[in-house]
TrEMBL record:
GO cellular component, as recorded: plasma membrane
One of the GO BP terms on file: transmembrane transport
Similarity annotation: Belongs to the binding-protein-dependent transport system permease family.
Protein name: Microcin ABC transporter permease
Keywords: Cell membrane, Membrane, Transmembrane, Transmembrane helix, Transport
Amino acid sequence: MGAYILRRLLLIIPTLLGILVINFTLVQFVPGGPVEQILAQMQGEGDVFSSFSGGDQDVGEETFGSDSQYVGARGLDKEFIAELERQYGLDKPPLERFMKMLWDYARFDFGESYFRSISVVDLVLEKMPVSISLGLWSTLLAYLISIPLGIRKAVRDGAPFDTWTSGILIAAYAIPNFLFAILLLVLFAGGSYFQLFPLRGLVSDNFEELSILGKVADYFWHLALPLTASLISAFTFSALLTKNSFLDELSKQYVITARAKGLSETRVLYGHVFRNAMLIVIAGIPGAFIGIFFGQSLLIETIFSLDGLGRMLFEATVARDYPVMFGTLYVFGLIGLLVAIISDLMYVFVDPRIDFERREG
């Protein structure tokens, strides 16, 4: 198993390299870099996207700097533009910039944010607890709900309980997370009805003054609505997957034999069926975590004003803050690859008969 884990760890390197190559290449063709952002702000246009919105301009106007490659550079000193390029490291060829980025990232040196005067590592560490909290708690609660529910549905397959719970699960899966999140805000966070939960943030302003129990209660009080919005579709798929996996195992010969020996239904379910049926469910844990951590973090964090990695990545992309963009994507990719390895280890933990080294050999 050690050799297999080592091979998987070594595969992280080319995978991360591919992620960086693709994203770096795409950035070279996307209009509106950090220099354009500064120029747009100087022109009073707010951001670079306003420069592409149209409007009548006299393209034949003789203004100093009109031959610049940057939108909004007309009328500005070329030396000023060159200084901006040097400040953001854009005065070097793309290949040289990419190679420098690889060397820095190999040492986990992500540089400094263009617009916040803080290192990317400090920014990631500052925002990480919010995204990790949302991803871990959502995944944990989703499986704590879905596994018992799926087993119960499998045992009572075709019964009224299975029918009406399936209807609820299908309806819950069809509701978009962001729509349900907005509904929760309107109903329970001071919208048009009740003010039961806070509208924004992960903790209260007086968090440091609270006791230990008070801090725990305040933390989960703020997480209640975001977690509920994340769970609405996360546990539905897992519950149906658990049910189908158990139904498949319950029809096999070893279950019939175990029942014929007089074993109790609990012993059959949790002593024999559970280990085999849970393999496919466990395989979905990394996907569920990554889906919540990556996919839902942006919407949930934005709607509930949670200052996490997803929201930071979105803001950095809009502002063309390249160090924050690439650093966050690097962290996302690394976490995803490590979680996939943990998934394989969980396979072996649940069923020691699985041997990845022998299968690869």
